[in-house]
Amino acid sequence: MVQAWYMDESQEDQRAPHRQQPNRAVSLEQLRRLGVLDADNYETDPCLKEIRRAENYSWMDIVTIHKDKLPNYEEKIKTFYEEHLHLDDEIRYILDGSGYFDVRDKDDKWIRISMEKGDMITLPAGIYHRFTLDENNYVKAMRLFVGEPVWTAYNRPADDFPARKQYMKFLADEAQ
User: Fold this and answer.
1) Which end of the chain lies in a sparser environment, N or C, as judged by fewer CB atoms within 10 Å?
2) What is the pLDDT of residues 55-95, one digit of tens each?
3) Tally of domains in the chain
4) What is the Cα–Cα distance from 136 to 102, expressed in whole angstroms?
């Protein structure tokens, strides 16, 4: 089950949990209001089948992030941790290992989402986010796309893209 919390302001090791003290947990409902969707288990959750059908996710691959498995590992880890957005939804199923997705809330505060084997997450197009491994330094994930995959990340600031404007409208509508 996905867990999330507001992050502290520490600039220390990005792979640490960075929980505020006292901890400020973020509920799944709060994540949903940001457009972040989850499912308990990609193998048995009927949500996965419905999401793939409804969103027309037709392409998938598997990525392993570990120093022995990913070419240019250190460079990739730094790139994944740069705050960015995509013009399409980003959907990930954790097949093994663990890591963190960080997303911005409506007030531009970081929320850390802990992901481990069996967890699924969908980040909407236009949401600022980043990814890092946790202290286990290993994750294997399934990535899904509509049509051919597009890997382009647009580092912040990227507020002029239609996907970002649409996401901001979504947040405004959710606030009403």
Assistant:
1) C
2) 787 888 889 999 999 999 999 999 999 999 999 989 898 99
3) 1
4) 17
CATH number, domain containing residue 71: 2.60.120.10
The CA-based dihedral angle spanning residues 68, 129, 2, 37, taken in that order and rounded to the nearest 10 degrees: -120
d(CA 34, CA 124): 9
Nearest one of 138, 17, 151, 31 to 84, comparing CA atoms: 151
Cis peptide before 157 (omega within 30 of 0): yes
The partner residues of 120 in beta bridges, in order of sequence, read 39, 93
Cβ-Cβ contacts under 8 Å for 62 (sequence gap 6 or more): 95, 140, 141, 142, 143
11/17 Cα distance (integer angstroms) = 12
Q: Angle CA(122)–CA(125)–CA(127) in degrees, nearest 5?
A: 85
Domain that holds residue 109: 3-174
Q: Which two tokens stand for residue 159?
A: 């507020």
Please tell me whether the overall predicted TM-score, pTM, comes out greater than 0.85 for this model: yes
